[in-house]
Design a protein that fits this description.
Helix content: 40-55%
Strand content: 5-15%
Order of helices and strands: EEHHHHHHHHHHHHH
Strand order of the largest sheet: 1-2
Shape: globular
Oligomer: single chain
Structural class: mainly alpha
Length: about 280
């Protein structure tokens, strides 16, 4: 949105590498205003009136000035258990995403690899492309599967990269449309790309697009954080995650970020206790 819970998830980064577990349940989030259809019928005509609610305005990315502060204020007021955690960790720092295509490409390359191995392959990939600025659909499609295998990219991942690039080239996806899509639509469209699953999309929305209300219900670190924070006997499943974290809306991304911080702190405390 996972990797072992001791892993650092920083919002300074783009999407982290894939988790060992698969996710089949997604968080359905929509920021579009709701429409109420009001029907009135008489003997001769039937009219339909659409009334658009404006009570829920579209949310800005967390990288916008002041949005993180709004999120922290909301979370501290809506969840008393979460408030102490907010005070004990620095808020997430955010860098803008310069290229959704680059972020998605990196996500595919990092899948199911140890961090150092993934970084090494990614560095060689950038050399093939003549730098990050040249990572675009045409460049990726020009790299054959055998050429990519020479730098350590598997044949399967090569097919994933080519499928992503082809969807960009044929207009199914673009950086512009990705930035404009709401969360539900983005989840649906990106999971149509080979090799990109629900968890990867959640991580992309969190770490690259800085969407404010993403709950990665399949991420092990977030699930363990919720289990620890609320003293649950069992690891919460997707539906229970949705129910428990309802109070975090519309800033579930930030609440999730603090679940990673919680588990990191617990891991460090356990490590220190073993050394004592």
């Amino acid at each position: 949105m996972g990797k072992p819970v001791t892993r650092s998830h920083s919002l300074l980064l783009h999407e982290p590498s894939s988790p060992p577990l698969s996710t089949t349940t997604s968080s359905k989030i929509s920021f579009q205003s709701r429409k109420i259809r009001k029907l009135s019928t008489n003997k001769t005509t039937t009219t339909t009136t659409a009334i658009t609610s404006t009570s829920i305005p579209p949310l800005k990315p967390l990288s916008h000035k002041g949005e993180v502060e709004l999120a922290l204020d909301h979370l501290s007021k809506s969840d008393p258990l979460l408030a102490p955690l907010l005070n004990s960790h620095e808020p997430p720092a955010l860098n803008p995403c310069t290229s959704p295509f680059l972020s998605l490409t990196k996500s595919i390359l990092f899948q199911q690899l140890a961090t150092n191995a993934a970084k090494s392959i990614y560095t060689r990939f950038l050399t093939l492309c003549d730098g990050e600025s040249q990572v675009n659909p045409d460049t990726v499609l020009s790299l054959s599967a055998p050429k990519l295998r020479e730098i350590g990219v598997s044949g399967r991942k090569a097919s994933y990269l080519h499928d992503l690039a082809e969807k960009y080239r044929n207009g199914s996806l673009s950086d512009t449309t990705i930035l404009e899509m709401n969360d539900d639509m983005l989840l649906n469209r990106l999971t149509e790309v080979k090799g990109i699953g629900v968890w990867s999309v959640h991580m992309f929305m969190l770490f690259s697009l800085h969407r404010p209300d993403v709950l990665p219900v399949g991420d092990l670190g977030v699930r363990k954080g919720v289990q620890s924070l609320y003293g649950l006997k069992d690891l919460p499943q997707a539906l229970e995650m949705e129910q428990i974290c309802e109070k975090w809306k519309p800033y579930r991304s930030v609440g999730s970020w603090y679940m990673w911080r919680l588990m990191e702190a617990k891991a460090l405390a356990n490590k220190a206790a073993k050394k004592a």
